[in-house]
Design a protein that fits this description.
The structure holds two protein chains of two kinds. Chain A is an all-alpha fold. Chain A has a single domain (54-260), classed as MetI-like fold. Chain A has ten helices and no strands. Chain B contains seven helices and nine strands; from the N terminus they run E-E-E-H-E-E-H-H-H-E-H-E-H-E-E-H. The radius of gyration of chain B is 18 Å and the shape is globular. The chains are: A mainly alpha, B alpha/beta. The complex binds adenosine-5'-triphosphate and magnesium ion. Adenosine-5'-triphosphate (ATP) is lined by residues 12, 15, 17, 37-43, 206 of chain B. Adenosine-5'-triphosphate is lined by residues 12, 15, 17, 37-43, 206 of chain B.
């Protein structure tokens, strides 16, 4: 038999695999905070303008103990939750109408497109004139800010429900109402939940902005006051709180997605 | 129930799709519709099932639906049309929930059709967990759960591989033998046509007109017996010769469109 070259086939399909390392983000956070703390301790950062993480934690702790912080958080949360719920309910309702009824779509789409780009915080002064300086003007600003992106996401979520499922339901004699609740609503859920991510971050931005303009409670007011008094440790503490709040909301939404969208 | 079409025509805007289509399907019989792509087969089925408004001619049913029938004209879809968020049993339930059935009867009907379609072990599975063949079995189970008078099937097996198609054809034959449902069945597959049809309706290319109606004298259940092999082969050839030229032209048309 003639000599034949025999080579083992080499593997060349490595890398480019999507994946995550669970510990990596925690480690990154730790490294950043450690660098920051070290820089402060070594006085590379001006203590007056950029306090150390440990000082921020102390400031937050002190505020937590005397109860002021909780009051601010509760005030902000109340505004966010009520504004977000109002805006979402109204937005989903209109978005569904636009997705289902041709007339609602032809009327609603141009109006929504025209009003969507207005930065809603610009309307706060108007709402203060209408509703007074109290809670309603802030809640209205948040609700309006949440309303428009929710309309758009609910509308396109309804629009994306496969037509063949709707036809199937019709072919089995389901009424329009039943089709809305049994086919369109669950079918639009992924899009609606994705919209919640956007609208909840908008609510967070607007609550801070509104509280900076006219409030003496809430995280926004707290951050502004801390800045005016040059209490930078408290100011950064407030910002950290906002970040935690955002993360918390996002975690809640992830849980909701896991439960509601198990079928995907 | 019998289905009668008289001089049926349909146009999408100014695109005529069907012209002067007339035939009847007797109770318990299966009519298979074949014809080149785009000749209006799906349109015709949707007209019969009331998913499109009738334009010209007349489509009617004769006779009364069987006892316990909840939805006389019932579709089985090419893409299965299952709700991905509902389990197998839930998908069948969708067809029943809005009728006054009572929980016990509803459960009984679901259990019965799942058993009939070999799905009993998958009642709680989600569609995404099933193979294509099993998904279409759910589509068929959902259809027979309402005890239809007429089944409208638009290429029900065309999304499946050849072996699965073979298995499902056998299932369909035994279901029809049991329920004696009148059936209109659209396909591109001449094999399915000669296996399943009592009557093959051959349509011309668009606008679809009836080119030929071929009745098959051998009962569906006996079709595969060796003594009928020659007849089946001849039928297949006859249908292919009717379709071939049209299909070629239609094929070119689609590419130019
Ligand atoms: N909603 C619609 N609007 C306009 N034209 C349509 C519409 N639906 C179908 N058509 C056209 O009508 C013709 C017939 O369509 P139909 O779906 O009934 O054909 P078909 O025989 O089922 O084709 P295939 O074998 O590809 O499934 C096609 O030319 C198609 O492009
Ligand atoms: Mg078709």
């Amino acid at each position: 038999m003639p000599e034949v070259a025999k080579n083992t086939v080499a593997f060349r399909g490595g890398g480019f695999v999507p994946g995550t390392r669970r510990w990596a983000p925690w480690l990154a956070f730790l490294v950043i905070i450690a660098c920051w703390e070290t820089a402060s301790q070594l006085r590379w950062l001006p203590a007056l303008f950029m306090p150390a993480p440990s000082e921020v934690v102390q400031a937050l702790h002190a505020l937590l103990v005397d109860g002021k912080l909780v009051a601010h958080i509760v005030a902000s949360l109340k505004r966010i939750v009520s504004g977000w719920i109002l805006g979402s309910l109204a937005g989903i309702t209109l978005g569904f109408m636009m997705g289902i009824f041709v007339l609602a779509r032809s009327v609603g789409l141009p109006i929504v497109s025209a009003l969507f780009p207005i930065p809603k915080i610009a309307l706060l002064p108007l709402f203060i004139l209408w509703f007074g300086i109290g809670e309603p003007s802030k809640v209205a600003t948040i609700a309006l800010g949440v309303f428009f992106p929710t309309v758009v996401s609910a509308f396109s979520a309804v629009d994306n429900v496969p037509r063949n499922l709707i036809r199937m339901a019709q072919s089995f004699g389901l009424s329009t109402r039943m089709i809305v609740f049994k086919v369109i609503l669950p079918g639009a859920m992924p899009g609606i939940l994705a919209g919640f991510r956007i609208s909840s971050s908008i609510a967070l931005i607007l609550v801070v902005a509104a509280e900076m303009i006219g409030a003496d409670t809430g995280i926004g007011a707290f951050v502004l006051a801390a800045g005016n008094l040059m209490q930078i440790d408290q100011l950064i503490g407030g910002v950290v709180l906002l970040s935690l709040l955002g993360l918390g909301v996002s975690a809640l939404l992830s849980i909701a997605e896991k439960i509601v969208l198990r079928w995907r | 129930m019998q289905v009668v079409l008289e001089d049926v025509g349909y146009a999408y805007g100014d695109l005529p799709v069907l012209e002067g289509v007339g035939f009847a399907v007797a109770e318990g019989e299966t009519a298979v519709l074949i014809g080149p792509s785009g000749c209006g087969k799906s349109t015709l089925l949707n007209l019969i099932g009331g998913l499109l408004p009738q334009q010209t001619g007349r489509i009617s049913t004769l006779g009364t639906p069987p006892a316990g029938c909840l939805n006389p004209l019932t579709f089985v879809f090419q893409d299965f049309a299952l709700l991905p968020w509902r389990s197998v049993a839930g998908n069948v339930a969708l067809a029943l929930e809005h009728h006054r059935l009572g929980r016990a009867e509803q459960q009984a009907r679901i259990a019965e059709v799942l058993k009939l379609c070999g799905l009993s072990d998958f009642a709680d599975a989600l569609p995404k967990q099933l193979s294509g063949g099993m998904r279409q079995r759910v589509g068929i189970a959902r259809a027979i759960a309402v005890k239809p008078a007429v089944m409208l099937m638009d290429e029900p097996l065309s999304a499946l591989d050849a072996q699965t198609r073979e298995l499902l054809m056998e299932d369909l034959i035994s279901i029809w033998a049991r329920e004696r449902t009148t059936t209109l069945y659209v396909t591109h597959n001449l094999n399915e046509a000669v296996r399943l049809a009592d009557q093959v309706v051959v349509l011309s290319r668009r606008p679809g007109r009836i080119k030929r109606i071929v009745s098959i004298p051998v009962p569906v259940a006996e079709r595969m017996k060796p003594e009928h092999a020659a007849l089946v082969k001849n039928l297949h050839d006859e249908l292919w010769s009717l379709i071939k030229a049209e299909a070629q032209v239609a094929d070119r048309e689609m590419q130019h469109a």
